[in-house]
């Protein structure tokens, strides 16, 4: 009953918003007045696009002569940001604003502020308080209500760089038009193209892939986020023969590479070995009464201030030998059906093992309630001996605090299970999109907005995102290539050290490996073209010719250089992941819209159980919540029928196990 009432309220609010816009009611979010004739802006946009074809650096470009637009931005992904880092010396946005006339009103930009996407959408609709731009906010309600601009016919004209990328990376094919519900219509501007390894050779045919390997090593067989990092002083106490980070760097400086036995210096070839490792570290901490500034140290954590993805999608599936599988939907190659992974018996058993971490003191209960800032502070104070996924301690903070230890990578020699689930090699597609709201943006203003978004797909825009403008003095062009003028920038951009310098200057950097977003809030995806492609600092520095340096150790101490992931070689567009069906299977979208606010907290509560009986009760509540909110067996069968009817090429690939 509540769901139907909510849907009626949302539909009513959207209808009122449409009538208000059609009546010409003044929007509170209206940008500055457009020029007297649209032709003025169109002419300027055309001149700008022509200039981009030859512009070497944004500093060489003239000031924008058209209207200045200040835009409110809505980050529609998730329930909201745990932290909102600000840039103290932003060198990117002043130049973007100077050459495009576009400025983001950071103070009035929003996220979902703890709500799910439909709830946030309903509030904006009820108040008719639409922002100008929204990231990943496209929905059937908004499209059907006519709230969003249709950009299909405008992108080829006003965003030629983006249009080139779209046609190169995901051109239409028979039976697959792309865009909104496979109609070939685009109600959002595509951004954030991945994976980089696949896309760079397509866009840059002359790329040296041996050289680009140092930018992004081939995917290791258990996925990107399955290695762990361990405090090397505690590791040494538990395993005296294990090398510290200093010793790894010394070995690299001695011979310039690592052997496979160097990489797998910690015994472990199974999931059981991994669990034993965690308990061994916990025993050492207890035996030596290790603390940090009087605060307790734990072997690891269960929560990191956000959802459960790091633990239960990255780490858990990795130690089971299942790369690129998450706890929502997957294609079971044995039963040849779309299934929910979180209901599998083995997943439930592993969740109980992690719950025992809490009961046995391997991880603290507080880690399940700490916010992002609190978790980060504990991480950077050395209070977690083992960390995993993307949660990497800030080495600069550790050094500034005088910590006598470092964190080093630890890999387990677990085989990939290729018989369990489809592990497809996906076609390169955008994983995000920016929608433009009709109520806040006039038709006359669209060319300028698209010009701005397209700028970040251009060579000059990508260089700006990676290096800043020449006028900022952060780099100089030398006979050996472009070089940073500050060592901390080199450490961040070339060696991946998380020292905060990317946020300071609002550059793409170590904190956002995997997507082309700036370091500071609101993290607007400027057009994530493969981390700048051949303009990425690691590629520009040419690590194949770079003098051997201790900071290079993690480029070589990497599982992807020894044990490659086994992919199904046929590239598919439509993966078995739940988000592939949002636009076409309403119940799966319904579930995802309450994922952050409802499902994820229910999953987290399972890890807090004090007894086996409580664990069973909480686990069943999570399953019940999923089924009551759309993630049902019927919905999965509907998704399978969709694949048969609309995406027969990918469906055939699924069945064949490609």
Tags for this entry?
single chain, 658 residues, alpha+beta, four-stranded mixed beta sheet, globular, disordered N terminus
Give me the side-by-side strand order of the main sheet. Answer: 2-4-14-5
The rough form would be described as globular
* Amino-to-carboxy terminus distance: 43 Å
Helix content bin: 40-55%
Mean of pLDDT: 87
Instruction: Report the count of strand segments.
Output: 17
Radius of gyration: 25 Å
Give the biggest sheet: 4 strands, mixed
Strand content: 5-15%
Number of helices: 28
* Unreliable stretches: 1-9, 15-37, 511-516
Structure overview:
With 658 residues, the chain is of the alpha+beta class. 40% of the residues lie in helices and 10% in strands. Strands 2-4-14-5 form a four-stranded mixed β-sheet. The chain has a three-stranded antiparallel β-sheet with strand order 11-6-12. A two-stranded parallel sheet has the order 1-3. Helix 25 (595-606) runs antiparallel to helix 26. The chain is globular, with a radius of gyration of 25 Å. The two termini are 43 Å apart. Mean pLDDT is 87; it is low at 1-9, 15-37 and 511-516.
Summarize the structure.
This protein is α+β, with helices and mostly antiparallel strands and 658 residues long. Helix 2 (38-52) packs parallel to helix 18 (446-455) and helix 27 crosses helix 28.
């Amino acid at each position: 009953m509540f769901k139907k009432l909510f849907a009626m309220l949302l539909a009513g609010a959207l209808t009122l918003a449409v009538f208000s816009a059609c009546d010409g009611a003044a929007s509170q979010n209206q940008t500055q007045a457009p020029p007297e004739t649209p032709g003025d802006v169109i002419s300027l946009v055309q001149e700008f696009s022509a200039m981009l074809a030859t512009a070497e650096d944004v500093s060489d470009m003239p000031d924008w002569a058209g209207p200045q637009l200040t835009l409110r931005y809505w980050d529609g992904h998730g329930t909201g940001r745990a932290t909102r880092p600000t840039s103290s010396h932003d060198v990117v946005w002043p130049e973007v604003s100077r050459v495009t006339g576009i400025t983001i009103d950071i103070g009035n930009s929003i996220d979902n502020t703890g709500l799910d996407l439909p709830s946030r959408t309903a509030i904006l609709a009820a108040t008719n308080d639409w922002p100008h731009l929204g990231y990943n906010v496209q929905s059937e309600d908004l499209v059907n209500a006519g709230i969003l601009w249709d950009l299909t016919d405008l992108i080829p004209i006003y965003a030629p760089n983006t249009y080139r990328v779209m046609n190169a990376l995901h051109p239409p094919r028979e039976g697959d038009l792309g865009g909104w519900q496979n109609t070939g219509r685009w109600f959002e501007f595509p951004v954030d193209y991945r994976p980089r390894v696949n896309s760079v050779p397509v866009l840059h045919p002359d790329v040296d892939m041996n050289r680009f390997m140092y930018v992004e090593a081939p995917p290791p067989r258990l996925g990107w986020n399955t290695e762990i990092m361990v405090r090397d002083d505690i590791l040494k106490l538990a395993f005296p023969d294990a090398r510290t980070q200093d010793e790894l760097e010394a070995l690299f400086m001695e011979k310039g590479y690592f052997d496979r036995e160097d990489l797998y210096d910690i015994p472990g070839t199974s999931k059981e070995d991994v669990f034993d490792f965690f308990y061994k570290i916990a025993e050492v901490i207890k035996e030596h009464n290790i603390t940090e500034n009087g605060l307790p140290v734990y072997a690891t954590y269960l929560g990191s201030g956000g959802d459960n993805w790091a633990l239960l999608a990255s780490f858990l599936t990795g130690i089971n030998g299942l790369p690129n599988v998450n706890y929502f939907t997957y294609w079971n190659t044995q039963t040849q059906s779309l299934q929910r992974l979180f209901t599998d018996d083995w997943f439930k058993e592993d969740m109980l093992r992690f719950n025992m971490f809490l009961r046995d003191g391997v991880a603290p209960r507080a880690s399940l309630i700490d916010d992002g800032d609190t978790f980060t502070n504990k991480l950077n104070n050395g209070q977690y001996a083992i960390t995993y996924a993307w949660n990497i301690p800030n080495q600069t903070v550790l050094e500034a605090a005088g910590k006598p230890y470092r964190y080093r990578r630890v890999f387990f020699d677990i085989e990939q299970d290729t018989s369990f689930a489809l592990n497809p090699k996906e076609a390169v597609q955008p994983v995000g999109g920016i929608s433009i709201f009709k109520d806040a943006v006039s038709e006359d203003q669209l060319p300028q907005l698209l010009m701005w978004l397209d700028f970040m797909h251009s060579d000059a825009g990508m260089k700006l995102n990676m290096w800043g403008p020449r006028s900022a003095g952060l780099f100089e062009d030398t006979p050996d290539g472009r070089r940073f003028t500050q060592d901390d920038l080199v450490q961040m951009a070339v060696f991946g050290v998380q020292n905060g310098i990317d946020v300071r200057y609002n550059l793409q950097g170590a904190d956002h490996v995997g997507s082309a977003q700036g370091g500071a809030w609101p993290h607007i995806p400027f057009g994530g073209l493969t981390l700048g492609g051949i303009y990425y600092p690691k590629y520009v520095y040419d690590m194949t010719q770079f003098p051997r340096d201790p900071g290079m150790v993690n480029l070589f101490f990497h599982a992807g250089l020894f044990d490659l992931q086994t992919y199904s070689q046929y590239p598919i567009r439509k993966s078995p992941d739940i988000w592939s069906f949002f636009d076409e299977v309403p119940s799966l979208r319904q579930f995802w819209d309450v994922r952050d606010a409802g499902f994820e907290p229910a999953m987290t509560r399972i890890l807090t159980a004090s007894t086996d009986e409580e664990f069973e009760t909480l686990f069943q509540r999570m399953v019940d919540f999923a089924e009551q909110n759309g993630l049902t067996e019927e919905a999965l069968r509907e998704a399978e029928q969709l694949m048969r009817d609309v995406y027969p090429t990918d469906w055939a690939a699924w069945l064949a196990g490609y």
